Amino acid sequence: MRARDWLSNSDSIHATFGFLDDGAKKDVRRALLKAVAIPGYQVPYGSREMPLARGWGTGGIQITLSMLLPNDVVKVIDQGCDGSVNAVNIKKFYERVAGVDITTDTLAASLIQTRHRIPEERMTDRQILVLQVPYPEALREVEPSEAQTRRMHSEADYARMWLHLYEDVVHFGEIRISYRYPCTVNGRHVMDPSPIPRWDVPKLHMADTLFLFGAGRERRIYAVPPHTRVEPLEFEDHKFRVEDFCGKSCGRCGATDTFLDEILGPSGSRSYCCSDTGYCDKRKERWIRC
Amino acid sequence: MAYVAVQGGREAIERACDLNEFRRQGAASRPLELAQIREQLHLAVDRVMGEGGLYAPDLAALALRQSAGDTIEASFLLRAHRATLPRLGESVPDSTAEMRIIRRISSAFKDVPGGQILGPTNDYTLRLLELERLEEPENRRKAIRDRVFRDLPAPLEMPDTFPRVVELLRKDGLVEDPGIEDTDPFDITRRSVSFPAPRSARLQAMARGETGGLLLLAYSSMRGYGHIHPTLAELRVGYLPVRIVNPITNEPVVAGEVLVTEAEVVSRFSNPEGEPRFHLGYGLCLGHNEVKAISMGVLDRCMRTDTPTCPAEDEEFVLYHTDGIESMGFSNHWKLPHYVDFLSDLDRLRKARENIHRKDDADARP
User: What dihedral do alpha carbons A139, A141, A146, A150 form, nearest 10°?
Assistant: First the structure.
């Protein structure tokens, strides 16, 4: 159903376009503006209850719903996949409460909501990426108390985070943070980039696209505006490294330059395919056409 | 008025019991049938069986009706009933490979041998209050039945066993092997647990633990009061055959099957010595209760931390405070008269105040 039809359809279950009432949308947008003005800073906001459980993307959903326009084209991915349970669920919801058009093509979308991945194709300045965030606090690893971590951010006191990374290098010869890799944004705030793999972290740096992060359960919104420095924490003699897929390729489209999912075969055999299914499909189609 | 005179207020007490029963049975509505509770409130029934420590769906339904839907009270009724039953023996330890699966997912891999089987779950529903369904007419129920049974492949192909995801990782040496305790399992219903507790005692205690309590502690660890970062390697819901040894033939025989939920979590490696491996956490409880099994798995892993730094990692803290029946009973006991104790408190308070006043008076004197 097109959004226009939705708007004129009196049977639609909720009177408001985009489920949230105007007051809620305004709250979220105000938090978004502040978040864009202070890159990487976590803005507290009055998170609403959504008809999906906490931890299932309610922060991202609230951001998307508060920005959604009737002519938007939306893509939703879960771990890179358009057909994964969380993505299907959320798309079903958007179709029901806003009737917007849905796509699986990264470049055709005006707004993409994602869980744990950034699409492989470089996004443009006409697009927005909304990331679902379980843990907005990058310092939670070293300090459980919210009062303390807020103080640490305000004083730019990141010593314990650095020490944590250093101790990892000493004990294991390796920084053990696999996803959710802490980054310094705009030279000031240390930020949790959401549980994207390290592979995706460089995509945040000096991008053309606006990245919005929503943590519904923890009631925080933050942002990385376009053309902003996003630098993973690293040491001069121990550099940040992304996941290693050397010598592996996608079993479907043959890609060697994408983040690959590992698939277990019956006897413990392993095969690989692109995590970004939209991109993989596109490559495969192009390949068949040639 | 009757409260203080607990020993003399017999009639008042009986009236209070009657009133409770009167309110429970309702006024205009029809009495609840046990089959309705067992079938239509099956998750509550499962929860009560798990926490009560007795697999008996009909009795759990009865307990739920008797307690007007209070799950802790219902599990208490069931556990109290269980205490009257003899212990006939032990089942044969078994792996869950033979489980008759109704749901099985892994969030560690996109696809796993045997496949992701979503099964009956509300995970993928929109949590919208179905105001249009205040009544549940028969034609609607039938439509759902028709939809479920339509287009089923003729012989439904299901493998007999599903390889466990953790086993596949273990084959590559990526997961630790917790080993097998070769002693008889500890029975927490017959002996008092001491610390450090054997793993069998820990898993038993959690299996009877209150869902909300286990969830609270597991969540505290996931959120930041702890350092465990779990991945759900596998979650299974299904019917597990229970085998006991026939005392005459000495052969194991299947005595029946129980519905259980099983969760296996793996977490980031943390042992600086030796080859790095993922650590394992295990949870299994009676009935379909995914929140509980996952919480158990996370807490099992948490409690195996060498140096506990937070409540969820402290075995004593977790096991002593997650039994709903014990904690509910004790919290409610504060409603009993405590006037003797309180009088003693008052005496001390008055005396202390008197001493202060006397000292003030003495200081004020020139």
Answer: -10
**CA dist., res. A79 & res. A195, Å (int):** 10
Q: What are phi and psi of A54, to 5 degrees?
A: -55, 140
Name the residues of A annotated as catalytic. Answer: 40, 250, 253, 274, 280
- Model's pTM, two decimal places? 0.84
Secondary structure string (H, E, C) spanning A5-56: HHHHCCCCCCCCCCCCCHHHHHHHHHHHHHHHHCCCCCEECCCCCCCCCCCC
DSSP symbol at B117:
B
With CA atoms as reference, the chain A residue closest to B128 would be: A51
Please count the other Cβ atoms lying within 10 Å of the Cβ belonging to residue A31: 26
Q: Which DSSP state fits B248?
A: T
Given an 8 Å threshold on Cβ–Cβ distance, is A89 in contact with B172? no
pLDDT at A248: 93
Interchain pair A176, B124: CB under 8 A? no
Q: Give me the interface pTM, i.e. the ipTM.
A: 0.74
Residue pair B164/B264 in contact by the 8 Å Cβ criterion: yes
By three-state DSSP, how is residue A272 classified? Answer: strand
Q: Token pair for residue A212? A: 């919005």
Angle, helices B57-66 vs B71-82, to 10°: value is 130
Beta carbons of A52 and B168 less than 8 Å apart? no
Helix (H) or strand (E) holding A184: strand A183-185
What whole-number distance in Å separates Cα of residue A272 and Cα of residue A281? 15
Closest alpha carbon within chain B to A91: B126
Pairing of strands A101-102, A73-78: parallel
Give residue-wise pLDDT tens across range B159-200.
777 888 888 888 888 888 777 777 788 888 888 888 889 989
Sign of the Cα pseudo-torsion (B168, B169, B171, B172, in order): positive
Interface test with A, best of B118, B124, B275 (most A CBs within 10 A): B124
Residue with tokens 């470089």: A122
- Which residue in A264, A269, A276, A280 has the most chain B C-beta atoms within 10 A of its own C-beta, making it the best mutation to test that interface? A264
pLDDT-wise least confident of A156-160, B153-157, B322-326:
B153-157
| Contact at CB, A171 and B268, closer than 8 angstroms | no
Residue of chain B nearest A87, judged by CA positions:
B124
Q: Which residue ranges make up each domain of chain A? A: 3-139+176-232, 244-290
Tally Cβ neighbours within 10 Å of residue B237.
Answer: 25
- Tally C-beta pairs within 8 A across A and B: 59
A118: Cα within 13 Å, side-chain hemisphere: 28
What are A224's strand-pairing partners?
A211
Q: Are B88 and B70 in contact (CB under 8 A)?
A: no
Homologous superfamily (CATH) for A3-139+176-232: Bacterial phosphonate metabolism protein PhnH (3.40.50.11310)
| Residues B83-107 pLDDT 10s | 888 888 889 888 888 899 999 999 8
